Amino acid sequence: MGPDKQYIYTRDDKQKQLREFIRCVEVLCDYLPDCEAFSSKVDTFRAYQRMAMALSRKNFNQSDFTELSLSVKSIINLHKEWIPPLKETNSGWGVPAYYPKLEELHEKVMKAAFELRAIGKY
Questions:
Q1: Closest C-alpha among 12, 19, 24, 14 to residue 110
Q2: Are 92 and 22 contacting, i.e. CB atoms less than 8 angstroms apart?
Q3: C-alpha distances in angstroms, 34 versus 30, 45, 116?
Q4: How many CB atoms within 10 Å of residue 20?
Q5: Of 76, 102, 101, 97, whose CA–CA distance to 87 is shortest?
Q6: Each residue's pLDDT tens digit, 18-73
Q7: At a CB cut-off of 8 Å and minimum separation 6, what does 114 contact?
Q8: Residue 83: which region, alpha, beta or left (left: phi > 0; alpha: psi -120 to 50)?
Q9: What are the backbone angles phi and psi of residue 62, rounded to the nearest 5°?
């Protein structure tokens, strides 16, 4: 595909994106109970997963994907003065051991959600 070529996602592409979103949410939900400050978010992400699974069983359109994508809210604040939760250790204060993996899994969910909005690529 050259720089001036556009590819519009097919129905199969969108189904793959939806399956990837569901998979990413599942992995995050499996990890969240181990994340003290974020463990209460499991139900929220399970709701996103249920919405995605319902979409996969119906005759969806792009508006359905966009609505789902926009409903997914970040649990990690991104403003300039935000810091991750800190935990006291023997050597002082630091990011909890669970946080780097949480951040990685959360980023995958957010990327998969964002991808649902796209109708194609260049």
A1: 24
A2: no
A3: 8, 15, 28
A4: 17
A5: 97
A6: 999 999 999 999 999 999 889 999 999 999 999 999 999 988 999 999 999 999 99
A7: 69
A8: beta
A9: -60, -35
**C-alpha distances out from residue 22 to 37, 44, 78, 104, 117, Å:** 23, 13, 24, 16, 15
- Tokens 């995958």 locate to 108
Enter the CATH code of domain 10-76+86-121.
1.20.120
DSSP line for 75-114: SS--STT-----EEETTEEE--TTHHHHHHHHHHHHHHHH
Q: What is the pLDDT of residues 82-94, one digit of tens each?
A: 788 888 888 899 9
Locate 90 and state its tokens: 């023997």
Element (H, E) at 120: strand 120-121
Cα separation, 96 vs 36, in Å, equals 9
> Which tokens hold the place of 101?
């993996």
Report whether 18 contacts 65 (CB < 8 A): yes
